[in-house]
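Hi,

I'm pasting everything inline rather than attaching a file, because the server keeps stripping attachments. The sequence lines come first, and each chain or strand is labelled.
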Amino acid sequence: MAPGELLTGTEGGALLAAAVLLPFVGMLAGLLLGGRWLPRVAFVLMPLGLGVALAIASARADADGPLVYLLGGWSPPLGIALRADGAAVAMLLAVAGVVCGIGAFARGDFGLAPGAGESRGAFAYWLLLLAVWGALNLVFVSGDLFTLYVALELLTFAGVPLVCLAGSGETLRAALRYILFALCGSVLYLLGAVLLYGGYGTLDMPLLAGALQPEPIAYAALALMTAGLFAKTALFPLHLWLPPAHGGAPAAASAVLSALVIKGSWFLVLRLWLDVMPGVANAAAAQLPAALGAAAIVTGSVVALRQQRLKLLVAYSTVAQIGYLFLLFPLAFDAAGDMTLREVATSAGVLQAIAHATAKAGMFMAAGLVYAALGHDRIDDLAGAAKALPVAVAAFLVGGLALMGAVPSGAYLAKKLLLGSAATSGQWWWTWVLQGGAAFTAGYVVLVALRVFRRPPAPLADLKPVSALSQWAALGLAVASLLLSLAAVWGPLPPDLLAKAFSLEELAMLPVLFGAGALLVAALARSPLTGSSGGAARPGFAGLGTAFEAGDRLVRQWAPAMLALLLVAGTCGWLLARG
Amino acid sequence: MTIETLFALTACALVGIGLYGLIAQPHPLRKLVAFNIMGSGVFVLFGALAKRGAAAGLPADPVPQALLITAIVVAFAATAVTVALLVRLIEATDSASLADAPPRE
Amino acid sequence: MSTVVSAAVVLLLLWLAVWTVVARDAFLAVAGFVVYGLLLALVWVRLAGIDVALTEAAIGGGLTGALLLGAVGRLRGTEAATATEGASAGARAGAAVLAVAVTAALMLGVLVLPEPVPTLAPLVVPAMPATGVGNPITGVLLAFRALDTLLEATVLVIALIGVWSFAPDRAWGGRPGPRYQTDPDGVLAWLARVLPPIGVVIGIYVFWAGADHPGGKFQAATILAAMWMLVQMAGLSDAPRTSHRGLRAGIVAGPLVFIAVGVLGLWAAGSFLAYPPGLAKPLIVVIEVALLPTLVLVLALLMNGPPRRGGPA
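And the predicted assembly:
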């Protein structure tokens, strides 16, 4: 947009304000009515919110460009504009869908029994679920860096109490660690936004995109904001708060945290690098997020394979999958170092984010159901779980399959798009990371599958009943992830992307990945897979696994993590300035 | 040196001082105080930039000043949530340690 | 104030900042922070931000300081235990190096800021008549960037939901904070009888003046919240039950009225949060009046903390 040109709103723009405000109105109404109304208000809001998201998608399909809404009729830079491009619409829809799925699941845990009064857990859970939803919608549609700061804080304040809903000391500690580190991230983000205002006199993203010059103030701002957002997203090595927070919360809350909350700050990194700062960012600096992502995939996956509890395995798999979300950044640049592959990178990133949101929500729910039914989630003692809880176990395995990139999952299409970009831009090294990440994911699917299908030494007794609706909600989300690319080509993406998806070559990828995954498990898992097989080769590899665990423990201490945060900011700024 | 440059440079130093405290002080409450110092540094920087933007008969650019009021309130909310969490953690465990394996539980 | 005085303020500010960060124990650090907050208000006056100065003094210094002081009293000797897990000497050295590097980089950035200075002031001035208010900061907060102010109220409510959720299950729905028992003839009780009427008058004046002069709802709400806290601490009244329907109605009233006025704008002026011509000032007053009780309640309740006693009724 040319500087000085005033924006005008587009048809359907008011829907964007509705998408943001409806969940907050629901939260306020729930707070007022309380008691038995808490879940009811949430269940009224879910179809409404989904409806608004669908209406936005339909308005966007009819419009030529992004939907724009000028709040109060004031145009930026003085006023605040809401905008929705394809990526924002996709995220709005996905979040609405996942919130509905998680809500259906949580009815089992936080629904109120007839006659019961208001409980602390239900109060906090339903109100904060709505708060997370509103804050995320705001992140997706806001075009103003300061409004986005407030949105990020909303997201943090809503996410932190979800961590310690159980109220135990361990979860309170995890929540405190989370909020302190997230606050450091926010203040770095705000510092960057302040510098941009000082340099360019606006906080509106499209106006900034037109005004930014490759100069020190822009480098410093982008570096600080990027590092701050990495901390809030828990990108390795800034993930100290994630495993205990996501692993210790109740499953319905873990699903919100892992599937949804971290996507807010991730989405903002995407916006900053690809929409606001294409004139400032360069291919060399873009290697940094992906390099950290690669480290996240390896460390997160290895440590996941060495967990003894299913929920912690899923939490560490989130550490790895967050890494996957950052591989797109260098792949937005072509061989000449120009950002010509931006569209593909954005599509791949959004697909991967939605694939992870749906699959991971399903997997956390499945882990929670296993825990609720068996009374534990020790991976070594899961024999017989598949027979006892077929739907929940299916949800876990389908979710894992979807994250591995089995055809026609969203992760499959995301990987395919990024592999294409890696080939055209000559960045062959990312091909290895993309395929290796899928193999690691296959590893923990194999690890769990081998346990749950085993026959238990004694028939499982004392199984607690779990809600059928909860089980099917988990499976529904996992299946949605597995079928995501069909929805994508039915919607905005060109259908020929899936032309060869069911060819022998693509389908053969799956057994290859499973084989590689099984090898990884055999080498790295804590306890031997089946009897003594592979035992001879284990000692050396087990040492490798222990080394990764030690490294993970080191960077999950406060001082090293904070130093890493500053080093990430410094490295990012240096790479940007070097050009 | 103009007054706004002086305060802007001070603000940069406050950010650094707060950062050091956030890393070096082990107790969560001390980290929270350091966070507030660092945050106030960012605020003062913004205020100095606002003063620098005095124009059209106004003593300072009012937009950053308005944003600052919002930011100060948000920082207070952050402090309130963190303090409540810290006090609850101490009540529940008699420890304020952030480390993974606490000495006693 | 001359440059010499400014330089002295800066030196004192930096010294206090260092003090709070390196002080021997948490009490000294927090005491330093409270003084630091007061001094900061002076900086804001100097930076031509009376509104910000008032907010900083009231919320940044006052309420935050009181909150931190309250927390110091409940550390139960955890300080000594955590002292052993402090950063190693190497980490501290690394922290110092990196903190200095960040400071230096920021200072360089500040010194090369562009000329002419980017500012939105020239856009604010011609737009002010449409808002009907005289204070440009109020114009920004309630017209041009009204969404931020709505979200800010929402942030406070979410923070309160979060703080309440930290309650032990048995205390759910009960009252926050301790029940204060003080000598009914003591100084505190006397203050709590004498000060609130004065405080309420000042608070309402600050609130009313905010439309055209420095001041406004946040500063007023802080004063009123402080008066309420004083009455509670003197034992003259107890904190309300968190399950109380009227209390909750007061908490949600502000944001809900704000949103309702916004929807009215959608219907009558063509845009959410727009004001119909000529009605801007009265509608802004409606929003501020509705937000005031919300802010008083939420600020005071955030200070009170989670419910602790007198569980389900």
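The first strand of chain A starts at residue 67 and ends at 70.

If the labels don't parse on your end, tell me and I'll reformat.
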